[in-house]
Amino acid sequence: MIWFVITFFVLSVIAGCFIFPKLSPVPYFPSYKDIPGVLIDFFKKNKKEFAEYDVFVDLGAGDGGLIFSLAMKNRSFNWRYLAVEINPFLVFFMRVRKFFGRFSNLQVVWADFFAFKYEFSQKMIFYLYLSPEYLNKLIEFLRKKADGVVISYFYRPDSLQIIKAIKLKNGRYLYVCRL
After folding, report:
1. pLDDT reported for residue 131
2. Assigned fold of 26-178
3. What angle do CA 130, 132, 134 make, to 5 degrees?
4. DSSP-derived 3-state class of residue 174
5. Pairing mode, strands 148-153 and 124-128
6. Interhelix angle for 2-19 vs 88-101, to 10°?
7. Which runs of E-coded beta strand occur in 22-179?
8. How would you write 80-104 as a 3-class SS string?
9. Model pTM?
């Protein structure tokens, strides 16, 4: 009986991290699995342009699949990686993954990306996989704070100049835009 109560409690806490809008206002959908490889190829082909960047930020990092893959495989650049996520369960999962993977160039932050305190540099790359409502709000927020590049998966940012639209095998696009 005690195991049932403990299991029910643990599952309730985990479910609560995904159900309550305060804890996770944007639904969790992992990014398409081919995106890290596509981005690494894109960065390598445009090495001269991206050599001056110093931070890659995944705003709404989810389980960290994209940013961990980039931090591990993208050795062409000496970037720092920042994963920002509001869902405490997903943050915990990423922190455990970081601990066991020993990613010294990656930082996991539990925060609402509209409110987190971070010193923005001039050359940052922001990866976004958000609904159009949050995407547009976040772009306006970032315009006030930083200068750099936004990479949006699935949704085209209407208010930004698109540098390149990369079509993926699943038929969706990555939009690389100047902020």
Report:
1. 85
2. Rossmann fold (3.40.50)
3. 60
4. strand
5. parallel
6. 100
7. 55-59, 80-85, 106-110, 124-128, 148-153, 161-167, 173-178
8. EEEEEECCHHHHHHHHHHHHHHCCC
9. 0.85
Query: What is the per-residue pLDDT across 3-39, written as a single tens digit (0 to 9) for each?
Result: 644 554 444 444 444 444 455 556 667 788 999 999 9
φ and ψ of 125, to 5 deg = -115, 125
DSSP state for residue 53 in the 8-state scheme: -
Query: Are residues 57 and 33 in contact, defined by beta-carbon separation less than 8 angstroms?
Result: no
Residue 39 identity: L
Q: List, in sequence order, every residue forming a beta bridge with 110; answer none if it has no partner.
A: 85
pLDDT of residue 157: 92
Q: Which has more confidence, 178 or 22? A: 178
Select from 36, 46, 50, 43 the least CA-distant residue to 153: 36
Q: 2-40 burial by CB neighbour count: b if 16+ within 10 A, else e?
A: eeeeeeeeeeeeeeebeeeeeebebeeeebbeebbeebb
CA-CA distance, 59 to 139, in Å (whole number)?
Answer: 11
Radius of gyration of the chain (CA): 17
Q: SS3 of 34, please?
A: coil
What is the C-alpha separation between 32 and 169, in angstroms, rounded? 10
* Mean pLDDT computed over every residue of the chain: 85
